[in-house]
Specification:
It is built from 7 helices and 6 strands. The longest helix has 17 residues. It starts with a helix and ends with a helix. It is globular, with a radius of gyration of 16 Å. α5 links the parallel β4 and β5. With 193 residues, the protein is α/β, with parallel strands linked by helices. The chain has a 6-stranded parallel β-sheet with strand order 3-2-1-4-5-6. It has a single domain, classed as Isochorismatase-like (Rossmann fold).
Length: 193
């Protein structure tokens, strides 16, 4: 098993937090509830900031008329309510700072169509810890892109959740171990202590 502390000592790491925003974090998710995911992610954010490591906060937002949103032909459309005015605002527990990298995406993954890769590489980042909602959509899409860009990945399992426990479990047990290492929030905090 790869030593968690070594993950942070042997390469320059950053934390990427996916879609912990008012319009998404309030939804019912599993196997970890939204409040638990937000609390655990906020603890990871604090640990990275205390270690002077970059924190990238990613949210999804669209033009008021939806003209920049994807409109694919699919068998199972995503059920999203009409966005409230505060839909894209980060949850207050993240306590956004001016030093944070703020990324606005318009699709599932945080790399395509954004400057996330540029911002990370300019800071010398080679390793990414990742968390957020939803495990099998935003987190997994971003992770796949990061993996293909040769970043080393660490997944914070209890700081992410999906619309169902089964969707979360599939990503965590079948996909993520092939792209990186899966750890708990406590293991992350212990690695920094």
């Amino acid at each position: 098993m790869i030593d968690t502390a070594a993950f942070f000592k042997e390469g320059h790491a950053a934390l990427v937090v996916i879609d912990l925003q008012r319009g998404i974090a309030g939804r019912t998710v599993a196997p970890h509830g939204s409040a638990d995911v937000v609390r655990n992610a906020a603890q990871a954010v604090q640990a990275f900031r205390a270690a002077n490591l970059p924190v990238a906060l990613v949210h999804v937002a669209f033009a008021a008329d939806g003209s920049d949103a994807l409109k694919p032909l699919v068998d199972e459309p995503t059920q999203m309510p009409a966005p409230a005015p505060d839909f894209a605002e980060f949850v207050p527990e993240l306590a956004v700072r001016s030093s944070d990298i703020i990324i606005t995406k318009r699709n599932w993954g945080a790399f395509y169509g954004t400057d996330l890769d540029l911002q990370l590489r300019r800071r010398g980042v080679t390793r990414i810890a990742i968390c957020g909602i939803s495990t099998n959509i935003g987190v997994e899409s971003t992770a796949r892109d990061a993996f293909e860009r040769n970043y080393n990945l660490l997944f914070i399992e209890d700081a992410m959740a999906s619309m169902s426990a089964e969707e979360h479990a599939h990503s965590v047990t079948r996909i993520f171990p092939r792209m990186g290492i899966v750890r708990s929030t406590q293991q992350i905090l212990d690695a920094f202590s």
